[in-house]
TrEMBL record:
Gene3D superfamilies: Zn peptidases
Keyword Metal-binding annotated: yes
Signal peptide extent: none
Cofactor: Co(2+); Zn(2+)
GO BP: proteolysis
Gene Ontology, cellular component aspect: cytosol
Catalytic activity: Hydrolysis of dipeptides, preferentially hydrophobic dipeptides including prolyl amino acids
Protein name: Cytosol non-specific dipeptidase
Family: Belongs to the peptidase M20C family.
C-alpha cells in the first residue's frame, strides 16, 4: 500500500471506530467538528445535522473559486447471521486480503466513509495545494436522502462540487434520475365464505430482485407482476376469490417473492392447478436468462368454511387487473446515453391487510417532465380502480450538463495522469447531487470515487489500488485551480 493510500485508510479506520448507522450520526458529527476546531477551521451545521467545514486556501490560491468536496457520514449497518456485533457501540473491524479491504462479519462502511476519509486527508496535508475548500458532510443518505433533502443551501458558498459517493473508479457520474413513490389504498368487499370452497396457495419465489433503479435495466422478473399474470390465467379458467396477497419488501427493491391464496369451487381445483402449473412453467422458461431460480408453486390447502374471508369476485378481478395495468420495468431509454434507462417504474409492494388493498410503486426519470408523465400513468391506473392515490414529492433529478467545465477538467486530468479515457455515465438512481443542484442553482458537479463491491451487505469490500488513483486525481484537480480567480 502506497503512502497516500495508507494515510487515507488510517483516517478511514478512525472513522470506523465511531458508530454511524443512518439516523445515528451524532457521534461522528461531533468528532468531525472537534477535528475541524482543533485546526482552527470554521464549521457549521444545519438543523438536519449536515455539516460544512471551511478550509482556508493554500498560499497562492486565495482568489481561486471555492471547491466543495462532499460525501455522507452515515452507513448501512448489516451483519452476518449469528454475528454478535453491536453497531451502536462496536467499532468496524477491518481486514485486508490482497488488494481488497473488507470488514469482519459486517458492512465495511466505505459507502461512504471513504469519501469522508479522502476529504479529511486532502485538507489535512500541508503539501497539497488547494483552493478554499468546503468539506460538506451530509447525514441520513441511506434511508432516502433524508438529510440532504433538509439541507440549508446557505451553508454553501461554492459552486463547484465533487461528490465522492461513486463506486467505480474511472467512471464519472454527471447526472442522475429523480424519483417519486406512489401509494394506493382501496377498501375491498370482503365476505365470509358461505359455501363449500377449496383453497389454493400460489407463490412466486427465487427471483434475483435488486435495486429498482440501478438494476432495472437488467429486465429481471418482478414477483408481483408474475403472480398477477398467474392469477389472470386462473380467472380465465374458473371463478376465483382472493383470500390473501403479499409481495415485495421495500420501495426501492425489485420484488423477489409474492404469495397469494385463492378460493375456488372444489370442482374447479384440478383445472385451475393444471392452468397454474402450465403458466408457471412458461414464465420460468421466459425468465430463465435473468432469473434462473424463479420457482412458481401451487399447493392445495384443503376446504374452507365460514372462518375464511375472501374478496368478492369483482374486487378480485379489480386487484388482478390493476396489478397488470401498473407499469413496471424500463419505460424509456435515454436518447443521449443509449444503454441507459431514462424512465422506469417498479411495482414495489402489494398487500391485502385488514380488508384493504395497499400498493406501493416507485417511479424514476432523468427528465423531470417524463417523471411527471410516468407518475400520472401510475396514478391514473389507481384512480380507475377506485383507489385513494398519493404520490410524494420525492427527490429531483440531476440534469446532464454537457458543457460542464468541471467535467472537461476532470477528463483532461485523468487522461494526463493515467493515459486512459474515463467513462462518463448517468445513474438511474437518486443521488445527493440532484438535491444539491436543485437547491443551489449554478452548481457545477461531478461524482467519482474508488471501486467497491457489494455495498449495503457484509460482503462489502474496497479496492485499495483505486483509492490511490482517486487520491492522485483529486490532488491534481485541486492544484489545477491555482491560476484561477
Amino acid at each position: 500500500m502506497d503512502a497516500a493510500t495508507r494515510t487515507v485508510i488510517d483516517c478511514f479506520e478512525k472513522i470506523n471506530q465511531i458508530p454511524r448507522c443512518s439516523k445515528n450520526e451524532q457521534q461522528i458529527s461531533r468528532w468531525l467538528q472537534d477535528w475541524a476546531s482543533d485546526r482552527g477551521w470554521q464549521n457549521e451545521s444545519d438543523a438536519a445535522g449536515n455539516l460544512v467545514i471551511r478550509v482556508p486556501a493554500s498560499e497562492g490560491f486565495e482568489q481561486a473559486p471555492v471547491v466543495i468536496i462532499q460525501g455522507h457520514v452515515d452507513m448501512v449497518c448489516e451483519k452476518q447471521a449469528g454475528s454478535s456485533h453491536d453497531f451502536s457501540k462496536d467499532p468496524i473491524r477491518m481486514e485486508q486480503k490482497g488488494d481488497w479491504l473488507s470488514a469482519r462479519e459486517t458492512t465495511l462502511g466505505a459507502d461512504n466513509g471513504i469519501a469522508v476519509a479522502i476529504a479529511m486527508a486532502l485538507a489535512d496535508n500541508p503539501d497539497i495545494k488547494h483552493p478554499p475548500l468546503e468539506l460538506y458532510f451530509t447525514v441520513d443518505e441511506e434511508t432516502g436522502l433524508t438529510g440532504v433533502l433538509q439541507m440549508d443551501p446557505g451553508l454553501l458558498s461554492g459552486r463547484i462540487l465533487i461528490n465522492l459517493d461513486s463506486e467505480d473508479e474511472g467512471i464519472f457520474i454527471v447526472g442522475c434520475a429523480g424519483g417519486r413513490n406512489t401509494t394506493m389504498d382501496r377498501e375491498l368487499t370482503v365476505e365470509a365464505v358461505d359455501e363449500p370452497l377449496a383453497l389454493l396457495s400460489l407463490s412466486a419465489d427465487g427471483m434475483q430482485g435488486g435495486h429498482s433503479g440501478i438494476d432495472i435495466a437488467k429486465h429481471r422478473a418482478n414477483a408481483n407482476k408474475i403472480l398477477a399474470r398467474l392469477l389472470k390465467t386462473g380467472m380465465a379458467v374458473a371463478p376465483i376469490r382472493l383470500a390473501a396477497l403479499s409481495g415485495g419488501t421495500g420501495r426501492n427493491v425489485i420484488p423477489r417473492s409474492c404469495q397469494a391464496r385463492v378460493a375456488c369451487r372444489p370442482e374447479d381445483v384440478d383445472g385451475l392447478k393444471k392452468a397454474f402449473h402450465a403458466a408457471g412453467r412458461l414464465m420460468e422458461a421466459e425468465y430463465r436468462p435473468t432469473d434462473p431460480n424463479l420457482c412458481i408453486q401451487v399447493e392445495m390447502n384443503g376446504p374452507v368454511n365460514g372462518d375464511c374471508r375472501c374478496a368478492s369476485q369483482a374486487d378480485t378481478a379489480m386487484v388482478v387487473h390493476l396489478l397488470l395495468a401498473l407499469p413496471s420495468g424500463p419505460v424509456e431509454m435515454s436518447p443521449d446515453f443509449p444503454l441507459l434507462v431514462q424512465t422506469s417504474a417498479n411495482l414495489s409492494m402489494v398487500e391485502i391487510r385488514d380488508d384493504r388493498l395497499q400498493i406501493t410503486s416507485s417511479q424514476r426519470s432523468s427528465v423531470p417532465s417524463r417523471l411527471d408523465a410516468i407518475c400520472q400513468a401510475v396514478e391514473a391506473a389507481g384512480i380507475l380502480a377506485g383507489a385513494n392515490v398519493c404520490t410524494n414529492s420525492g427527490y429531483p433529478s440531476w440534469p446532464v450538463n454537457r458543457e460542464s467545465p468541471l467535467l472537461e477538467r476532470c477528463e483532461r486530468l485523468y487522461r494526463r495522469l493515467f493515459d486512459a479515457e474515463p467513462t462518463v455515465q448517468v445513474m438511474h438512481a437518486g443521488l445527493e447531487c440532484g438535491v444539491i443542484g436543485d437547491r443551489c442553482p449554478g452548481m457545477d458537479m461531478i461524482s467519482l470515487g474508488p471501486t467497491m463491491e457489494n455495498p449495503h451487505s457484509p460482503s462489502e469490500r474496497l479496492y485499495l489500488p483505486s483509492v490511490e488513483k482517486v487520491w492522485r486525481l483529486m490532488v491534481a484537480l485541486l492544484a489545477s485551480f491555482e491560476s484561477e480567480g
